[in-house]
Amino acid sequence: MRVTAFTQLITVLAVTAVVFILPVQAVSFILVLELALLLYIKHDRMTMAAIGALTVFTGMMILLQLLFQSSLEVAMIGGLRMLVMTMAFLCLLAATRIQDIAQALVERFHMPCEYAFMLTTALRFVPDFLTDSSATLDAQSCRGYSNRGNVFKRMYSYLVVIKPLVMRAVAKSDTLALSMELKGFGANTYKNMKKQELGIGDYLVLTVVIILSTYKFWVKYL
Amino acid sequence: MSNYAVEFKNFHYAYNGGELVLKDINVSVKEGSFTVLLGPSGAGKTTMCKAMAGIIPYYYGGRYAGSVEVLGEDTKGRRVSDIAMHLGLMLEDYESQLVSLTAGEEVSFSLLNHGFPPEEVEEPTKKALEDVGLPGRENYQLDELSGGQRQRLLLASVLAVHPRVLVLDEPVSAMDPEGSVSLYKLLYKIHQKYNMTVIVVEHNLDYVLPYVTDMIVLQDGGVVASGSFEEAAAAAYEDRELRRILPALWQVKLNLEKRDGIHLGMWRNTKDAIVELKEKYGRAEL
After folding, report:
1. pLDDT, tens digit, 9 for 90 and up, residues B99-134
2. What is d(CA A104, CA A3) in angstroms, rounded to the nearest whole number?
3. Residue of B82, B100, B113 lying closest to A188 (CB–CB)
4. Which end of chain A has the least Cβ crowding within 10 Å, N or C?
5. DSSP code, position B175
6. A192 chain-B contacts, CB cut-off 8 A
7. Are B113 and A185 an interchain contact pair (Cβ–Cβ within 8 Å)?
8. Is A188–B80 a contact, with Cβ atoms under 8 angstroms apart?
9. CB-based contact (8 Å) between A17 and chain B?
10. For testing contact with chain B, the best of A178, A188, A195 (most B CBs within 10 A)
11. CA-CA distances (angstroms) from residue B149 to A156, B23, B144, B145, B185?
């Protein structure tokens, strides 16, 4: 049973809202579910690294809250909520192709196609950008760039890498725009794809999402 | 219907706030020819390519006079993507011209944009990938392809809409010699198979020498010589600066023709040259 990108997006958005409604036990249960799902979909080193980084980041958040005089309980719950929210997005990205997400955004949420296309282009140019940055770093190292000294000094000297990198990116984006113009990018781009029809699985998931998001309401009156 | 693929009529162009880049261009490219566009850097070759595709003046603005006709129709007032259905343009930086995440999407992108239904797109996509020597790679991610393969992928995406004219701006400037030779071999195959007009900007004429039929020589924004390769090369040879960018083999040939007042044939490669020199002079060694 496959679930379309639209349902997945709705679910993720619902999870980010639901963590504020549901009791802590339920939120922790969602976290366990998410972890299991994520590891079922993908269990390579990248996923592990992402989970690790998220955990560290959550720890930092908790520390920060403690620093500002919150009680330990509030800080822990806050951290948990954030972890659940971000993990939901991680699941979404692991499970769905970014093209499908973009298509769902245009078809169902009526996002302008230019913005949706930005999602795919950003992903497309990440490797190119990394290659460029290492090339620029090499080139500037040859001209005497070094990352010694204190943090501010390093940041300042790193500007010599950033400047040409930005220039290069701008030049590339010009070519990209031309290329898109030549290939007729426009309103048709997303209209003319295979429609993402909702199936039984979608309706099932959406029902569960609706029940969970209205939890506060029916727990009160039923 | 004229039988010119591209025709420039009194075309002048200047970028916004700049000086004239192209001056009074009157030149035409015959349909079905393999034309090379030659000239020192800064002569306006790229600008000319962009003018053929209608990007100039549509995209860049600027001042212009005269007209450019593609397959008998003026490019003025037409959308760039509509012109691209008849005239495919490949710019120099091929990496940043790829817009999608997988090879199949890249090739079908322009077809889908022009309103072909998704079911009808699969077949031409497959065929275009086969034409450029990447069969069955529809689901490959872009970073799974090497530099040369990416360039071929771009070529496939341009060919997918079956343009009648193909314009390439320095396609091999970032490639190794072997890759360059094989790319031109591929271009020639496509040129023969679909009887497609090919216009290519190339500095190193050795690569195109085996296939070229016509040549346009540009200098300082003006056309110095145009027409069949032999005529244009002879005209370019008269200019001291342009002489140097002709292939070494042809410099020898034109020099001999001038010195001895004879007429030599179309030298496609060293072998042709040796055969003819043996005939005319009785000796020739490598």
Report:
1. 888 999 999 998 888 888 888 889 999 999 999 999
2. 12
3. B113
4. C
5. S
6. 112-113, 115-118
7. yes
8. no
9. no
10. A178
11. 39, 37, 9, 6, 15
Task: Kindly report the backbone phi and psi dihedral angles of residue A123, in degrees, each rounded to the nearest multiple of 5, phi listed first.
Answer: -65, -35
Query: What is the maximum alpha-carbon separation in chain A?
Result: 73
User: Across the interface, do A184 and B84 touch by the CB < 8 Å criterion?
Assistant: yes
Q: Strands B165-169, B87-90: parallel, antiparallel or unpaired by DSSP?
A: parallel
pLDDT per position as a tens digit, B149-169: 999 999 999 999 999 999 999
CB-based contact B60:B15 (threshold 8 Å):
yes
Residue of A nearest to B50 (CA): A178
Beginning with the edge strand found earlier in the chain, give each strand of the sheet holding B20-30 in spatial order.
B20-30, B4-14, B63-70, B73-74
Residue A178 contacts B, CB cutoff 8 Å: yes
A173/B contact by beta carbon, under 8 A? yes
What CA–CA distance (Å, rounded) separates A14 from A96? 17
Shortest CA distance from B147: residue in chain A: A128
Chain B positions touching chain A (beta carbons under 8 Å): 53, 55, 59, 79-82, 84, 89, 91, 93, 95-101, 105, 109-110, 112-118, 142-143, 157
Count of beta carbons in the 10 Å neighbourhood of residue A36: 10
Query: What DSSP designation does B27 have?
Result: E
What value of ipTM does the predicted structure carry? 0.85
- Render pLDDT for A38-67 as a digit per residue (tens, 0 to 9): 999 888 898 899 999 999 999 999 999 999
Contact call for A178 and B59, based on CB within 8 A: yes
pLDDT tens-digit map of A174-198:
999 999 989 988 878 888 788 888 8
Contacts of B89 in chain A (CB under 8 A): 182
**Residue ranges for chain B with pLDDT beneath 50:** 1
3-state helix, strand, coil in chain A (%, to 5): 80, 0, 20
CB within 8 Å: A182 and B105: no
Residues 6 or more apart whose Cβ sits within 8 Å of residue A205: A3, A7, A11
Can you tell me the distance from the alpha carbon of B91 to that of B155, in angstroms, rounded to the nearest whole number?
Answer: 10
> How is A155-183 classified by DSSP, letter by letter?
HHHHHHHHHHHHHHHHHHHHHHHHHHHHT
Q: Hey, how many other C-beta atoms are within 10 angstroms of the C-beta on A212?
A: 17
DSSP summary character for residue B183: H
Query: How far apart are the CA of A172 and the nearest CA of chain B, in angstroms?
Result: 6
